[in-house]
Amino acid sequence: MPGENLSRDEARERAALLSVDGYEVSLDLRSAVGEADGDPGGAGGGPRTFRSVTTIRFRCAEPGAAGFADLIAPEVTAVSLNGRDLDPAEVFDGARIALEDLAADNELIVDARCAYSRTGEGLHRFVDPEDGEVYLYTQYEPADARRVFANFEQPDLKAPFRFEVRAPEGWTVWSNGAGTLTDGVWRFAETKPISTYITCVVAGPYHYVTDSYERVFEDGTKLEIPLGAMCRKGLAPYFDADDIFLITKQGLDFFHDHFDYPYPFGKYDQAFVPEYNLGAMENPGMVTFREEYIFRGKVTRASYEGRANVVLHEMAHMWFGDLVTMEWWDDLWLKESFADFMGAFSLVGATRFTDGWITFANRRKAWAYRADQLPSTHPVTADIRDLQDAKLNFDGITYAKGASVLKQLVAYVGQDAFLEGARRYFKRNAYGNTRLGDLLSVLEETSGRDMGAWAAAWLQTAGVNALTPQTLLAADGRIAELAVVQEAPEAHPRLRPHRVAIGLYRRTEGGALERYARAEVDVDGPRTVVGELAGEQAPALVLVNDDDLTYCKIRFDETSLATLREGLGLLSDPLARALCWTALWNMTRDALLPAREFIELVLEFSGRESDIGVLQMLHAWAQSAAVHYTAPGRREETGRILARGASTRLQAAEAGSEHQLAWARFFARVAADGADLELLGGLLDGTVSLPGLEVDQELRWAFLESLAVHGIVGEKELAAELARDDTASGKRHQVRCLAARPSAAVKAQAWARLVESDALSNALVEATIAGFGQPSQRELLAPYAERYFAVIERVWEERSIQIGMDVVEGLFPSLVDTPETLAATDAWLTAHEDAAPALRRLVLESRDDLARTLRGQECDGAAG
């Protein structure tokens, strides 16, 4: 058998053969506490395990045929098919259970010992260092439910599930359905038909808060939804459950208003869990989130907005993804693109975060633009051959580009037609599986538009178009002709139809840059004349895609670019500013704008940026420009200029403001010389203070990391800080800081822990990688470029896909940014054409980033 990596062809064959009537899953998790029965270094020498007994009732369309069930487990103790005992040694290969001579109606019972996870895949077990308590949770997408119970692991074999769980005394257990404890066993209500990857179990001594939601519909029916929210006991003092419930209720109201389909899954619990690989997961009735969304220190409004967006994104999945699910991962966009769009749509429409479209334009679309220019870019509807492909396609294309395309679709068909299409889609396909055509057909009904042509242009081709204005002035200084030129990259030459707004801006008497004319037009083909703007006064700035209606890269004519160089901060509209910043950043990445000029613009105008989320994005971009795109001979000087500017802005910021906090964090990241580090040290030990700046525990770690990077603090000081913050969060911070120290021995130790051992949990792998690669330590990192290419294939084969992805992406020698590293990458790719496609994709993406880095450095160097 081909093992763990299920292919699309196999899934289709199995779906044609089998239909599933139901699952009964019994888990005994009492082994989660107490002495290890197999923890590494324990008496057993193998993984710590739990008992899993699964009963599956299913039908076969061709009696006598053979099939297989999925299970990844250290041991199967018994298998029974239709009353026949099968020899586990003969039918189980470590990933699949062979099923021969199937009947029309079948019952499969599998008794197995499954392994607790330390990588965030399957049933993850976490021991809280603060109090020794054990916490469990599951995470399955795309195909890790088979690490917990035997199943048919593909999204189109939906079925009802019944779970029962035996847990240590004093624990509470949650699953998708409501649960009750009877005679030491937690039993959960049967679910609606759902896919395996969205089933869920959370267990442990979690801190749990409850609330409720009520809705009375126009026909008089009443809906009551029990609400719950939970976290580790150690995070309870920071847990602002009231705000989470507020966003939850606002979201439920919004989706009920717009979807005309009541929430279908009973209760609505939300668990914030440790060492989580994702942002969150939409398990119906039991959504899981990474616990970093519980803020231990002061954060900006952007952090709360980001959390609210994720809460609403996952809630949208209850309809897009859980109620109606894609047939195979090719149509992953049917859930993720919609949830990403609906997250922003509901954020603006239902919560206090009414500027959510600015964040969407500035952050989410920036992610999409980067992904769409990689060699691995793909259409929104992707060609997903197998599960490894699926894992890597949870990317900026599937999420942010797909959401951007849907925003364009709303402009194309109209919001009413779009939402009516969604309502019909839910009602026709409830508890079923769909493909692209199922959605397009209802949108054609509601809009009267040809959705086939739209889908071909936007969903079935890759690449991002660039739109540039061309302005011809008449003798009287007014516009004689304004046109929009559309370009496409050579690799993806498709020119698309764009519904765009073109804004004309000029200086007011008060000095601000404000829009005085706007036209909304359809841009199609290589050049489109915008007749509506002929005769308008000459603009200082032409902003294509004003209001961010379409998905494109914005370019500027020379007059507009000169205006931005002189007065970008004078743009009064925050969305227009965000769009201009994004366009300038794209120009920097495309080697059309020198990195130092972008940094100068940030230092000149970011102090006037009112939107805190945009400001924090500018900080990240400016740091990236300094690290990656600045010419090597100018890095040190540019770094000092950036640090000096950050220090000046920090000390000038309003006392106690979130802008002050953002500048403090940025300054900690870019601090470059003795004076910077002395200021950080003084803020840390209290000998220096800034009015209004509270140096809480999270900010202390930010300062300590910078001091560790430059060798000012070492193991002793970091151990003392961990004693001060002896928590799971503190441990992650300490591990990152330890790996960040400027020592060859430190780097060797971190490398060995990442590459030669699997002792670290997923969270500590992430922390060690983050500390290992420091821009100021390029000489220390240089020897690892050659070692990287020698080990990555072995790492990919030996580790779980999540850890493999983390190591292959995180340890790529991007900071050894030389032509020699680029040549070594090309040599590896040439010599490993038969390597796993997913591994090659990761290396190809890193190679593209490196090549872009070198082009950017050349542009910066040529600027004089």
Describe this structure in words.
The chain is α+β, with helices and mostly antiparallel strands and 864 residues long. The chain is 42% helix and 20% strand. The protein has 28 helices and 28 strands. The strands form seven sheets. Strands 5-4-7-2-1-10-13-12 form an eight-stranded mixed β-sheet. The longest helix is centred in the C-terminal third of the chain and has 26 residues, at 837-862. Mean pLDDT is 95; it is low at 37-44.
What is the structure about, briefly put?
The protein is an alpha+beta fold and 864 residues long.
| Main beta sheet strand tally, sense and closure | 8 strands, mixed
Strand tally: 28
Shape: globular
Q: Mean pLDDT, as a whole number?
A: 95
| Strand order, sheet with most strands | 5-4-7-2-1-10-13-12
- Runs with pLDDT <50, length 5+? 37-44
Which bin fits the share of residues in helices? 40-55%
* Percentage of residues in DSSP E strands: 15-25%
Radius of gyration: 28 Å
Class of secondary structure makeup: alpha+beta
How many helical elements? 28
Q: What distance separates the N and C termini?
A: 61 Å
List the helices and strands and how they pair.
Blueprint: H1 8-17, E1 18-28, E2 49-60, E3 67-70, E4 75-81, E5 84-86, H2 88-91, E6 96-99, E7 105-115, E8 122-127, E9 134-139, E10 161-166, E11 172-175, E12 179-182, E13 185-188, E14 201-204, E15 207-216, E16 222-231, H3 241-259, E17 268-273, E18 280-281, E19 286-290, H4 301-317, E20 325-326, H5 333-350, H6 356-371, H7 387-392, H8 397-413, H9 415-429, E21 433-434, H10 436-447, H11 451-458, E22 466-473, E23 479-487, E24 498-507, E25 513-523, E26 527-529, E27 541-546, E28 553-554, H12 558-567, H13 574-589, H14 595-605, H15 612-629, H16 635-652, H17 658-670, H18 674-685, H19 697-709, H20 715-724, H21 728-739, H22 744-755, H23 762-772, H24 778-781, H25 784-798, H26 801-810, H27 819-831, H28 837-862
Parallel strand pairs: 1-10, 16-17, 17-19, 20-21, 22-28
Antiparallel strand pairs: 1-2, 2-7, 3-6, 4-5, 4-7, 8-9, 9-14, 10-13, 11-14, 12-13, 15-16, 18-19, 22-23, 23-26, 24-25, 24-27
Helix pairs in contact: 3-4, 3-5, 4-5, 5-8, 6-8, 6-13, 8-9, 9-10, 13-15, 14-15, 14-16, 15-16, 15-17, 16-17, 17-19, 18-19, 19-21, 20-21, 21-23, 22-23, 23-26, 25-26, 27-28
